[in-house]
TrEMBL record:
Keyword list, A-Z: Flavoprotein, Oxidoreductase
Pfam (any one): Oxidored_FMN
Molecular-function annotations in GO: FMN binding; oxidoreductase activity
Origin superkingdom: Bacteria
Residue span, NADH:flavin oxidoreductase/NADH oxidase N-terminal domain: 12-249
InterPro entries: Aldolase_TIM (IPR013785), NADH_flavin_oxidoreductase (IPR051799), OxRdtase_FMN_N (IPR001155)
Protein name as annotated: Oxidoreductase
The keyword Oxidoreductase is annotated on this UniProt entry: yes
Any coiled-coil regions, as ranges: none
Origin species: Dietzia lutea
Length: 417
């Protein structure tokens, strides 16, 4: 809800509520795929990864990404609901809770972003579209696939609740499956799931309602929804406003996280900043590496980075709905956080700023002039196959930064990969 004139904005370190969950403060660790689940096994490394954010002072950390369905994994080294986790998810939620933070599970289906070759399963899409990571073409979802995937989302919500998660974040962004259905460019269906916006949004709305019907308010439900795919003919903000309104009317979301970009067609649009093409190509098998030489510069376009870079778009959604919202994208310091709070966002979500410094909330509480050390090089993107991490993490600047990046920091990079 936008703030009424004269209403003071909440302080970021005051408790905030999403559904039935109260977070100790309003800083949320955004989903950053961890790469710590070999063949889907939940590991102690994954638990430590999230416990570090909890220790570092976040209100809630988000585990990314726990696939709803086996063919919805981006690759085989990913958990999917229905697998036996051997009690490790409960160990994970207990560990985070013991440090005073809440924990959310990002659940979703990767659609054409899934690597079918690695999963040993044909990737699914709204229509037959290229699925580049596995060099495949998707199978268009049948009505039975859609029904099953809706139920898989319900299974994920139930599994998350039973494992002690406080919230789930349903992934409706980045041209993963549901976002592919929303896209007029990728969805060429002729049935009741294609064509008009009402039809393209039907899948997302069915998932939201089915989760709410099954779970009531036992677990908080946030939804990560694209505002702009960043590609010609894609889903755009005028449609996103309407979809956000529908999700609010349906009563299926407790909060919205707005995002942009397409993991399929324009990944850097989500991040802004540098396009680490060479580092990314180095992680790929030879055929993809060769393909990236040809299409890479076109696909990995660079976009200028600015702090709080999704603010102007997200404010359009903020004005359209009353649901609690998180501002994501380039939240790096107190001014960007206060900008969000003053505009009526109840929470901020941080990805790279926390990858760089998991204890950033504690540091900011001690010194409000503190600015994130993340330099938006985006080289962490290339680490997702070997354990996502900031490549500058071990670097300790000799002079503590005060109120801005200094040249020392930017010219003394010592990558640890
Ligand atoms: C290494 C890495 C992995 C990511 N993985 C996911 C993911 O699994 N799911 C998701 O929705 N977003 C993912 N993101 C995007 C972040 O959630 C976030 O939207 C993006 O980094 C912009 O926020 P920031 O400026 O605070 O980093 C990832 C980002 C990074 C850097
Ligand atoms: S590698 Fe580190 S500094 Fe570079 S964008 Fe990622 S978190 Fe920021």
């Amino acid at each position: 809800m936008t703030l009424a004139p004269g209403t003071p904005a909440p302080d970021v370190f005051s408790p905030g509520r999403i559904g039935n969950v109260t977070l100790r403060n309003r800083i949320v660790k955004a989903a950053t795929f961890e790469g710590r689940c070999p063949r889907g096994r939940i590991t102690d490394e994954l638990i430590e990864f999230h416990t570090e954010y909890a220790r570092g002072g976040v209100g809630m950390t988000t585990v990314a990404y726990l696939a709803t369905s086996p063919e919805g994994r981006t690759d085989k080294h990913q958990y999917h609901w229905g697998m036996d986790d051997g009690g490790m998810l409960r160990k994970l939620t207990d560990s985070v809770h013991n440090e005073g933070a809440a924990i959310s599970a990002q659940v979703g289906h990767a659609g054409a972003v899934a690597n079918g070759a690695s999963n040993g399963m044909t990737p699914l899409g709204p229509s037959r579209i290229p699925a580049p990571t596995g060099l495949a073409i998707t199978k268009a979802c049948t009505p039975a696939d859609i029904d099953r995937i809706v139920e898989d989302h319900v299974r994920a919500a139930r599994g998350a609740y039973e494992a002690g998660f406080d919230a789930i974040e349903v992934h409706f962004g980045h041209n993963y499956l549901v976002s592919e259905f929303l896209s007029p460019r990728l969805n060429r269906r002729k049935d009741s799931y294609g064509g008009s916006l009402e039809n393209r949004a039907r899948f997302a709305r069915r998932i939201g309602r089915a989760i709410r019907d099954a779970m009531g308010d036992k677990i908080a439900v946030t939804m990560k929804l694209n505002m702009d795919d960043g590609v010609p003919g894609g889903f755009w903000i005028d449609e996103a406003r309407q979809v956000a309104r529908w999700l609010e009317q349906d009563g299926s979301a407790d909060a919205l996280v707005m995002t942009v970009g397409s993991s399929l067609l324009n990944p850097i649009y989500l991040f802004k900043g540098d396009a680490p093409l060479e580092e990314f190509a180095a992680t790929q098998p030879p055929v993809i590496k060769m393909g990236m030489k040809v299409v890479g510069p076109k696909m990995f376009k660079e976009y200028p980075y600015t702090d709080a870079y999704m603010f102007d778009d997200a404010r359009q959604i903020r004005e359209a709905v009353d649901l609690p919202m998180m501002l994501l994208g380039g939240i790096v310091d107190r001014p960007s956080i206060d900008k969000a709070m003053n505009a009526g966002f109840e929470f901020v979500a941080m990805g790279r700023g926390l990858l760089r410094e998991p204890d950033f909330p504690n540091k900011l509480r001690e010194d409000e002039r503190r600015r994130s050390l993340c330099v938006h090089c985006n080289r962490c993107m290339a680490t997702i196959y070997s354990g996502s991490r900031c490549v500058l993490r071990e670097y300790v600047p000799p002079i503590p930064p005060r109120g801005g990046h200094d040249t020392l920091q930017a010219t003394s990079l010592t990558p640890q990969v």
